[in-house]
## 1
Amino acid sequence: MTRAPRTIALLGHPVAHSISPRFQQAALDALGIDARYEAWDTPPEQLAAHIERFRSGDLLGGNVTVPHKVAAMRYIDRPDAMVERVGALNTIVNRDGLLHATNTDVAGITGALREAGVEARGADVVLIGAGGAARAVVVAMRMAGAARLTIANRTAANGHALVEVGGPDLDMRYAPLDVQDATFRQAVSGARIVIQSTSVGMAHGPDESGTPVPAELFSPGQVAFDLVYVPEETPFLRAASAAGATTVGGLMMLIHQGAEAFRLWLGADPPIEVMVKAARQALAERG
Ligand code: ATR
């Protein structure tokens, strides 16, 4: 009797736009693994039932994305230390009916920087934004041994709340997200790495053509890292490029968080190049 293909599922709402099924399936196929990566649209009232399905023998596990990364925590048996640190999960692994969870966003951030040859140890870093993605950046910068992290955010209360998440080993402070503000200007000009985690500059977002940092504040020798990956070259990255700074795009973070999850479900090394190619193709087709 042939075994039914195993399944890995992505839970989100909406989820149809996600390119994870494309690059994960390409990786499975490239390695000849008989498994399907499916997107399951999951309105909040179906979250518990969909996670429950992960316990079945033919489910290897899955990914969890917006808006469920925090809510999913209550349905998990074994969240690891990374879930506790970030306060959110994005990966579930089914081990004999027991649901383990982790957060591979931190590995995605670290992997993207490593691949670009960027060293965060001892660095002065500016983080723009204070939402869910920003929390993973704070954890990644702490683990990488950054020296100082300035959080610049539109809403001061959210920025201050994230500063509280920092620890004694990382010097954290808040600056208003305002190009006219002297604290912000100095923080950005003096930073080695500037990481953009808001939806500003995202295609079809609230401020598609905007950049939180204009070219005049960047200089050569700096690194600009945007977590936004549609478009691949955001206005923020264009501004950095125009000033001669090094740029790192969000697609690499997406791929590396997916690659880390792939390793956990399958115990196999993911073919990164295949994933990048499939992701770019999916984005190009979507237009
Ligand atoms: P994610 O999980 O992707 O990080 P989120 O949790 O909704 O999304 O966080 C959104 C972040 O983008 C916040 O830092 C938000 O700023 P506020 O705290 O002021 O809301 C920021 N953001 C969203 N739209 C923005 C805009 N038009 N200008 C500046 N910041 C914006």
Note: Residues 129-134, 153-155, 158, 177, 197-200, 206-207 surround 2'-monophosphoadenosine-5'-diphosphate (CB under 6 Å).
## 2
Amino acid sequence: MSSDIVRVPQSAQPTALAGKRILLGVSGSIAAYKAADICSQLAKLEADVHVVLTPRAARFVGVPTFAALTRNPVLVDLFDEPQSRRIVHVDLAQSAHLVLVAPASANLIARLAHGIADDMLTTCLIATPRGTPLLIAPAMNTIMWEHPATVANVQLLRTRGVRVVEPAEGLLACQEVGVGKLAEVETIVQAVVDQLTRTREFDGDEFVITAGATREPLDPVRFLTNRSSGRMGVAIAAEALRRGATVTLITGHMSVPPPTGVDWIQVETAEEMLGAALEHAQRFAVFIGAAAVADFAPERIATAKIKKPVDVKNDEAGPVLRLRRTQDILATVGAMKRPAQLIVGFAAETEDLIANARRKLQSKHADLIVANDVTQAGAGFDVETNIVTMVGSDFERSLPLLSKREVASRILDEIAEMRTGRLNTIREESSQ
Ligand code: PMT
């Protein structure tokens, strides 16, 4: 297969948002120009988008841009309300299926948290009924994002059910590198689609999902790790959330943010990941191990940086590292599982894909192994796509090259079927 042309199928259907009315709020941030792209993408998915700008946002992007993209009036000033019997801000807020504020500045977040309604956007926000999903996508300088006031305001909003599309790390407008960059447009649009196309298939079911790469320290500055980006696990978490599950996502190092709405536990080492998994081992309905967990860790962690001797010759052998086996998380959790609980593992293989997957299915007490041949272009580590074969005790199902989100969807279809079958069997057995 050619490695330079990889088609990533869109996971959102072209009409995914047909009939959905979205109130898009834009606040004053240099990232406001990206709101036009978000608006355009939502409109392409057939959403009926109504835009409200803060006066400062209107200085970054013009009203006509949003009016042309949405074919709806764009509001800025509270006194812009047309002279009619309807109260526009109440009408807009109450008729929206979802409210999105992107970008959400530190100031907007503070005003929203404290119920200040001093312009058209914040007045719409305070008039939004409690059951309407409210998503905010923050964008600001790192110091502002990490300021205790912002941290407290975001926390307060989360406790009220506001969903935060986490800002990304990168080069900010102030030329500093840090966290605070508006999440990718695709991530924000996907969060909206997920929220508005939720199903109840896994309603009330608790999923525990591991993702990303563990890091095993050698000394205070070095560690052993692998190339997992966390994309596969994050895609599964997002899809499980969309289908109504409660998701605990345990991650090592990742290069993508977690999806909006998960309970996120961050760890470093295999041992810490095992500890976090065991804390949730009693409660889960489905455990999915998508993380690339270190099989070996240094036997000894040096307390000071391992130095090379000053007079070392280039051809002289370096230090020898002794490694110890880590405990297998999936096998440990699998050995404890109750009949209604399902265990799903991955197998990252470079040879004998199916035979190795079958071996792992048994040794890890798993119900399903998702095997990926990580030598194939477009599969495995740190790419947007994957090629997998699902291996169960009595079946094998191979999928073509798909986006990781689409792979996640197929895995969850399989899990839904297995879970229904399992619960029916338990019910039948207990009624005999
Ligand atoms: O994160 P991405 O960049 O999107 O890449 C995705 C992926 C390639 C990491 C993912 O698709 C994948 O294959 N994850 C499992 C990687 C791996 O560690 O495979 P394994 O064959 O070594 O392990 C088998 C299973 O046991 C896995 O479910 C793993 O999470 C689990 N395991 C392994 C070792 C260990 N100590 N504890 C474990 O639980």
Note: The first helix runs from residue 32 to 44.
